[in-house]
Amino acid sequence: MSFAISRVxxxxxxxVRSYAPGSAEIKSLISTYKKMWKxxxxxxxxxxxxxxxxxxxASLHSPQDHKHTLGFYYKGNKKHVDDAIKSCLKARKEWAxxxxxxxxxxxxxxxxxxxxxxxxxxxxxxxxxxxKNVFQAxxxxxxxxxxxxxxxxxxxxxxxxxxxxxxxxIWNRAEYRPLEGFTYAITPFNFTAIALNLPTSMALMGNVxxxxxxxxxxxxxKVIMDVLMEAGLPAGVINMVFSGGAETSQQILxxxxxxxxxxTGSTEVFQSLWRQxxxxxxxxxxxxxxxxxxxxxxxxVAHPSAIPSQVATALVRGAFEYQGQKCSAASxxxxxxxxxxxxxxxxxxxxxxxxxxxxxxxxxxVNAVIDKNSFDKCKGYIDRANKSKEAKVIFGGGCxxxxxxxxxxxxxxxxxxxxxxxxxxxxxxxxxLYVYEDKDWKKxxxxxxxxxxxxxxxxxxxxDRYAINEATKALENAAGNFYINDKPTGAxxxxxxxxxxxxxxxxxxxxxxMNLLRxxxxxxxxxxxxxxxxxxYPFLG
Length: 541
Ligand code: NAD
Prior knowledge:
This is L-glutamate gamma-semialdehyde dehydrogenase. The chain is an alpha/beta fold. The protein is built from 16 helices and 23 strands. It has two domains: 74-294 and 505-521, Aldehyde Dehydrogenase, Chain A, domain 1; 298-484, Aldehyde Dehydrogenase, Chain A, domain 2 (3-Layer(aba) Sandwich), CATH 3.40.309. The structure holds nicotinamide-adenine-dinucleotide.
């Protein structure tokens, strides 16, 4: 046996490819897209390293063409969840005891596979299955996913290096044990990188995982699992099941060996999961870790000293990239009256240029929303705004479901800062905007802080440094990710660790050491080199 204190390759953020028109990289990606579009996939669950097929098949469709069938996946039931738990518990000991360098190698290799041979495939899968344009797919399913893998390996070693001080004659050590039992990852549809990060961050720290992806992300989830298996992930470490969210959760959350949940999705679902864990608390062998990143009602507030073209651009990009289906998307804005005419003019000009359609045509900035539910929800808000006395649709508003779930980038102006779309998460390409009197700047900051139960992201635009300072303080608890003169979206792993507070989640900052800390249970070890041999302390004389 040889020994070493190894250093991992220093992580750097994966460079984002430009996909300029006519470039070799765009040609290669679009040709992969076209090839995958024609193929009919068959997606099994992966339990104990094996493909699991069932009698129940569900078809997969693309948001940009809901009549086109991409293939199907096999649905699971109670038995499969049970098998996945058993497979976790079988794999646990060997995986937990594997030296960390061996675990790290698997995830570093997965990062390299995604950066190289699988890059077009994961991007095309995300474009087809989740309707992201080339750039949105690249920053998510390639770059952010790769960053999560490489940075988490670095953070793991930093965490393991954190050791206590020792007095003379003793040696104190900290060991970071994987959680006792198995863990559970539930992932949302909107980021392929999140789907990859939630199960892999737990597995990296030595845990075994049941992973339930969203039904509308299964097409790219398969590519993630293919990559992990090619990278050498042993059987049973991550088990991917396609069973219903509510039933799967009920079964997992009542198991005595359940040790932690890593969730990203809506606030309502997270709260129902937490409630179940509370009710079952007496059943567990250990107190489970609960990590959840959930909804948002993210704001942009401009001060009268802001530059109108910067505000308008941040609103167009921040609200409408990926059709507003980012938890960080700007969905309410507060603009001073003195700037409004100019901001409106620039936004109008930019929105008039934006093309909407399939991601197969890279010139489309806006693509389809994820499914019929989302389409109907967006249309409902637009229809009600069209009828309301307090609101007016000033840009967009068109909805077309003939071929795909297309909703135009829509801006609603309201005279009521508490109008429904100023307060509720819509998760679509709808921005609501309130124009305030310049003299009401302070009152507006209070309004921003108190309008929504969420606190995920927010941005302030100003040139006046006193105003920046005032807003930074006044909005201290209104956002876990706060931006100054920048749009509230596009957090980068290692640069702006991501997560909100209040109703937006437990703020355990995905892609950071803080998050990995939740997936270990520390053991303090004290060794005494000169053990006492007399019970009497000096004060006894
Ligand atoms: P969702 O809550 O509908 O689904 C998330 C996951 O939970 C899916 O896998 C789904 O199948 C599962 N699920 C649904 N009902 C369930 C139940 N009763 N029990 C257990 N699991 C259940 O969310 P979504 O539509 O996939 O994603 C959008 C939501 O996610 C938005 O609210 C958005 O703000 C949030 N989100 C937050 C972050 C963040 O970092 N804060 C990131 C991405 C998305």
